[in-house]
Amino acid sequence: MRTISPDAARDWIASGGRDLVETFWGSYIALLVGKDHLLVVRDPSGAIPCYYASTAGGLVLASDAERARSAAALPVAIDWAEIRSELQHIGRRTARTALAGFSELLAGTALRISERETRVAKLWSPYRFVGDWRSSQAPGDAAQKVREVVVRTVRALTSDCLRPLSEISGGVDSSIVTAALRLAGADARCVTVRGGDSDLDERPYAKSVADRCGFAWQPVALDVEDVDIRRSDAFALPRPSARAFAQAVDEASLLAAREMRCDAFVSGGGGDNVFWYFQNVLPALDRLRCQGVGGFLATVHDLAWMSGVSRAEALRLSVRRLLRHAPRPWPHDISLLAPDVRRIEPMPLHPWLPAPPGTLPGVQAYARLLVLMQGQYEAARRAEAGVTLAPLLAQPVVETCLAIPSWLWCREGRNRAVARAAFADLLPSDILARRSKGGFDGFAYAVFLRNRAAIREMLLDGALARRDLLDRPEVERLLSGSAEVSNLLANRLLRLVSIEVWLASWIARLG
Predict the structure, then answer these.
(1) Residue 338 included in any domain
(2) Quick one: which of 288, 385, 463, 476 could link to 296 by a disulfide (CB 3.0–4.6 Å)?
């Protein structure tokens, strides 16, 4: 355990927590006691949750709403306006939650508590680390920086782990994390979770990485029997953030951890976002503003190659995006909602959004993706058996990647090009050549089919229907025995039932 000097602690308090965030990184909630106030700082990765609510006796801070409610006998109520927003927006993350009176202390912010006031200040922002992209950067230097920071971060995060379990999907990002575990000297093991029969079989790719790194590897198949759609793994949280099919993923990882005696779960989650995997023209627009028309056309060529379209088409899309001035709306889905619920609710602002004036379009998109990644492991049940680590979302990795121009990440028509080059000597050629990978859509659809009758009952007789928030006739039609349901709508119905189950769990407690 590291001891902090009194002078350093005083500096952290005097700076409102900013010196702490700029000097140290990790998974932490820091409580700093000043002369007349208390300062609560949440690290920029947001790895540890932090919620707060006011009471007659002061402020309650907790890692989830259930602990806070139980400890302080807090009155709790559903915030139905926020539920409407949860039904519409995808991956939203603001300080407001779906329980009235509960707020989240967002990643990279500080809560100042005194007798006079309670206020939140932003300590960390992604825009500070972009740097001067107008000066040329050598691709080799960028790759070396990424390699060093990923390995250093993985080594630090796993230093207290006896045997980490790498959740290797067969894709580029989890393969890079596994290679970093090898360079860090970890005594790691690997697991690959197989989805449904219609999902792409990632086991050959994953095994090649584990073999190359010298780690024992085990495949585990998901089982629809491990999914209980009447249970919400977010039951203690103040928003319905859990996905039903993730219960089976947790169970598979827990099984592998028990069999291989692992004490931590290491994920490549967030790599698509952090490693600038953009399937759009924004890198070309960034380069146009930084290096002019010649650089712009070179990146248009890279993007055409990467996306499998003609250069003329890539150029057309780039020009069209250049001429569009309206901001992109937050990702949303209003399908299966009642007609008067389809009007998009305005979202409260996030400290990182909107971007400051003059911010490059690629950096604006990067910041949005960072917000979308917040809290992705918060409802993971496997955290009960060991810490869940996401090295690619750690502060040093994000800051390093932000400093590298967006167009270098699609160089020579390869997505995540800098990251691939950084670990090219450690990864099998078939991994380095991959442009995409499978997912769990087939398994999620199997979960839907198995639970179709129960989903019908839960949605048509549940709180959402009673509040007239659903398009009841369309939900009823889709869930009848003969209706054809697409993968997209099946996932939507599973999301709606996850919100319904979360509501039921809280309504039962509130009486």
Answers:
(1) no
(2) 288
Max CA pair span of the chain: 71
Tokens of 278: 């953009």
What is the pairing mode between strands 164-167 and 118-122?
Answer: unpaired
How far, rounded to the nearest angstrom, does the alpha carbon of residue 166 sit from its chain's CA centroid?
18
Q: What residue type is 256 in one-letter code?
A: A
CB distance 38 to 60 below 8 Å: no
Q: How many CA atoms lie within 13 A of 337 on its CB side?
A: 20
Q: Which stretches of 90-147 are assigned E, i.e. beta strand?
A: 102-104, 109-114, 118-122
The mean pLDDT values, 10 residues at a time, for the chain of 511 residues are 77 93 94 91 94 86 89 85 93 91 95 90 96 87 97 96 94 95 96 83 92 95 92 92 87 92 93 90 95 94 91 90 81 94 85 93 94 80 82 97 96 94 94 81 91 95 96 94 88 96 91 66
Q: Are residues 298 and 231 in the same domain?
A: no
Angstrom distance (rounded) from CA 303 to CA 417:
12
DSSP state of 52: E
Identify whether the C-beta of residue 422 lies closer than 8 Å to the C-beta of residue 144. Answer: yes
Beta-bridge partners for 42: 29
